[in-house]
Amino acid sequence: MSMNILLLGSGGREHALAWKISQSPLCKQLFVAPGNAGTALCGDNVPIGVNDFPAIEQLVTERNIEMVVVGPEDPLVNGIYDYFQSKEHLKKINVIGPSKEAAQLEGSKAYCKKFMMRHGIPTAAYREFDGGNLEEGIAYIDTQEAPIVLKADGLAAGKGVLILQSKEEAKKELREMIANAKFGKASSRVVIEQFLDGIEFSVFVITDGKDYLLLPDAKDYKRIGEGDTGLNTGGMGAITPVPFCDEELMQKVKERIIDPTIAGFDKDGLVYHGFVFFGLIKVKGEPWVIEYNCRMGDPETEVVMPRLKSDLVQHLRAVGNGTLSQEKAEFNEHTVCTVIAASGGYPEDYEKNKKITGLEAAGGDTIVFHAGTRQSGQDVFTNGGRVLAVTSFGDSISDAVAKSNTTLEKIQYEKKYYRRDIGYEFK
Ligand code: AMP
Ligand code: GLY
User: Fold this and answer.
1) What SS3 class is residue 170?
2) Ligand 1 pocket, 161 CB below 6 A?
3) Which of 15, 93, 235, 280 has the smallest C-beta neighbourhood within 10 Å, fewest atoms?
4) What structural domains does the chain harbor?
5) For the purposes of burial, counting CB atoms within 10 Å of the CB of 142, is it exposed (0-12), middle (13-18) or buried (19 or more)?
6) Taking the model in full, what pTM does it have?
7) Which residue(s) pair with 356 in the sheet?
8) 208-218 as b/e: b if 16+ CB within 10 A
9) How far is the CA of 39 from the centre of ligand 1 (A)?
10) Which atom of ligand 2 is found nearest the CA of 293?
């Protein structure tokens, strides 16, 4: 039986999810709130914000929506899952996302670290500090080796992690974060952790809190500049599969990280129906957890969804029905990359409302997912820092990236910027 589905969000991740969901025979009608010019090609955009729960409730009721897929972390940390559970007429709706409590795994670094310690999951050693023991924190930094990693406890739009090369700088920043609210309330508590030196990668699962389906692994490129230089961004590109994610490493990831995490949800009584994004780092051949996110990655989703052969909606329906153990996720063996086209100036100040031309240049092995775009009449305009995610299939990383770069040369808007070197270490 097909159903109406609501997807929340407006980025490249949501266009990729909308693209996949809308291909499912189980999807009758797809609504996206608020969506972008790309999601409008896969379903009906509705101008409702992701945190406006009463308006979402009204839409779900009026449009007979049976499944709500939550793209970004904000509504999850704000408790959208619990909101639906708290209302008799909404209880039966299959909300894909963790409960408010479980979303703290992303919403609070201190909560996340305690969870990992409790369940013996490999992660950097740490201590937490706040206004009550700031001076202890300063003294603690003196006992550590640089670089020092400082993490704002709460959500800080991806900016709350500082890696300082000297203890003096670290002490100054710790004071800024705690005493001067450098990241607002998010940094009233700070986690100081051991620096891990290795190569990062991401692993994703769909879980119902007991069983899980493994999705393709991916690697994203967070820095703005080529050669991984300059400021951190939300992500400037991604590749899958990750060349060093061999069977041996993935076996360790499953045994030491994924299995105890899912078992941890069950032991702790955490309700978790959704995606888990494991931000991992390989250090001397061993996997460690840097962070959990309670949603899919962006831009990783723009490479993971194109590799998923099986029906995403069927998997998500099984999450709601408690039958995930009967599902099997199938992937294709292609190499897939995505290259983000950003607005000049991003991740600092940038301008919006630049007309985009050449979008029809895609085709063949390339899909243009929209991130920060908006439609006005027949035209599409830039509407965010990350504007497009140009995804290509290839026989190799070089081949896939070359296809995305060729398409990006044909797409024009004022101050377009993209990294031409995505996947560079593996070429
Ligand atoms: P997070 O928000 O926890 O993912 O941290 C953002 C980024 O900071 C990560 O993607 C890493 O590149 C870096 N990072 C975080 N924690 C550590 C650590 N303990 N050692 C080295 N790098 C880290
Ligand atoms: N690409 C990293 C993230 O989605 O947080």
Assistant:
1) helix
2) yes
3) 93
4) 3-87 (3.40.50.20), 125-194 (3.30.1490.20), 199-426 (3.30.470.20)
5) exposed
6) 0.96
7) 380
8) bbebbbebbbb
9) 31
10) 5
Q: What stretches of 48-198 adopt beta strand conformation (E)?
A: 65-70, 94-98, 126-130, 148-152, 161-164, 189-193
* Per-residue model confidence as pLDDT tens for the chain (427 residues): 899 999 999 999 999 999 999 999 999 999 999 999 999 999 999 999 999 999 999 999 999 999 999 999 999 999 999 999 999 999 999 999 999 999 999 999 999 999 999 999 999 999 999 998 888 899 999 999 999 999 999 988 778 899 999 999 999 999 988 988 899 889 889 999 999 999 999 999 999 999 999 999 999 999 999 999 999 899 999 999 999 999 999 999 999 999 999 999 999 999 999 999 999 999 999 999 999 999 999 999 999 999 999 999 999 999 999 999 999 999 999 999 999 999 999 999 999 999 999 998 888 999 999 999 999 999 999 999 999 999 999 999 999 999 999 999 999 999 999 999 999 999 8
Cβ pair 385, 377 in contact under 8 A: no
* Rounded Cα gap, residues 403 and 364, in angstroms: 10
106 close to ligand 2 (CB < 6 Angstrom): no
For residue 222, the ligand 1 atom closest to its alpha carbon is 10
What are all long-range contacts of 393-397, with beta carbons under 8 Å and residues at least 24 apart? 393/306, 393/334, 393/335, 393/336, 393/365, 393/366, 394/334, 394/335, 394/336, 394/337, 394/365, 395/335, 396/335, 397/239, 397/243, 397/335, 397/337, 397/423, 397/426, 397/427
Residues making up the chain, counted from first to last:
427
Buried b (16+ CB within 10 A) or exposed e, 320-334: beeebeebebebeeb
Buried b or exposed e, range 63-102, using 16+ CB within 10 angstroms: eebbbbbbbbbbbbbbbbbbbbbeeeebeebbbbbbbbbb
- Residue ID of nearest Cα to ligand 2 atom 3: 297
106, 293, 296, 339, best to mutate for ligand 2 pocket (most atoms within 8 Å of CB): 293
Half-sphere exposure of 191 (CA within 13 A, CB side): 25
* Nearest-CA residue for atom 2 of ligand 2: 297
